[in-house]
Amino acid sequence: MYEPIPKETERIAGLVIEAAFRVHRALGPGLLESVYETCLCHELSKMGVSFQRQSELPITYDGQKLKSGLRIDVFAADCVIVELKAVEKIIPLFEAQTLTYLKMTKQRLGLLINFNVTLLKDGIKRIVL
Q1: Residue 15: which region, alpha, beta or left (left: phi > 0; alpha: psi -120 to 50)?
Q2: For residue 1, pLDDT beyond 80
Q3: In this structure, how many other beta carbons lie within 10 angstroms of the beta carbon of residue 93?
Q4: CB 36 within 8 A of CB 112
Q5: Per-domain residue ranges of the chain
Q6: Would strands 80-85 and 109-114 be described as parallel, antiparallel, or unpaired?
Q7: CA distance 82 to 14
Q8: pLDDT tens-digit map of 3-34
Q9: DSSP letters of the chain?
Q10: Which of 40, 44, 91, 104 could disulfide-link 49, Cβ–Cβ 3.0 to 4.6 Å?
Q11: Distance of CA 114 to the CA centre of its chain
Q12: pLDDT by residue (tens digit) across 56-66?
C-alpha cells in the first residue's frame, strides 16, 4: 500500500490545475497543444512554480541509459508530471503514457489535461502511482 501523496505535491498539483483553468478561460478549446503548453508555463512562472518543459526522459534498457525520444510536457516543481493534450477525447493510451512517465521518474502524481473540451473540469484526469 502506498503512502498518501505529500502535501507539497498536492499543493503544486492544485497550482497547475489553477493555471490550466486560467489558460482555458482565456483561450477556450480548439488550439494546438503547444499553444496551451506555452501559456500554461507562462502562468506557472507568474505563480512562482518551478518547472521543466519538454524534458527528455531517457530509458534504461539492457543496463544502458538510452535516448528514447520521450519527453515530459511539463514537470512541475520536480514532483508533478503534466501531460497536455488538445484532442477530441482522452484514450487509454494517453493514461498509460502518463503512468509510464510516473514509473520512469519514480514520481507519484500525474495530471493528464485535455484542453479541447468545453468545460476544463471534464478534461483533467489525476493519475496516481
Answers
A1: alpha
A2: no
A3: 8
A4: no
A5: 7-128
A6: parallel
A7: 12
A8: 899 999 999 999 999 999 999 999 999 999 99
A9: -PPPPPHHHHHHHHHHHHHHHHHHHHH-SSS-HHHHHHHHHHHHHHHT--EEEEEEEEEEETTEEEEEEEEEEEEETTTEEEEEE-SSS--HHHHHHHHHHHHHHT-SEEEEEE-SSSSGGGGEEEEE-
A10: 44
A11: 10
A12: 998 888 999 88
Give the residue, 53 or 60, on which the prediction is more confident. 53
By residue count, the chain amounts to 129
Burial 32-66 (b: 16+ CB within 10 A, else e): ebeebbebbbebbeeeebebebeeebeeeeeeeee
State whether CATH 3.40.1350 applies to domain 7-128. yes
The three cell numbers of residue 114 are: 485535455
Cell of 21: 483553468
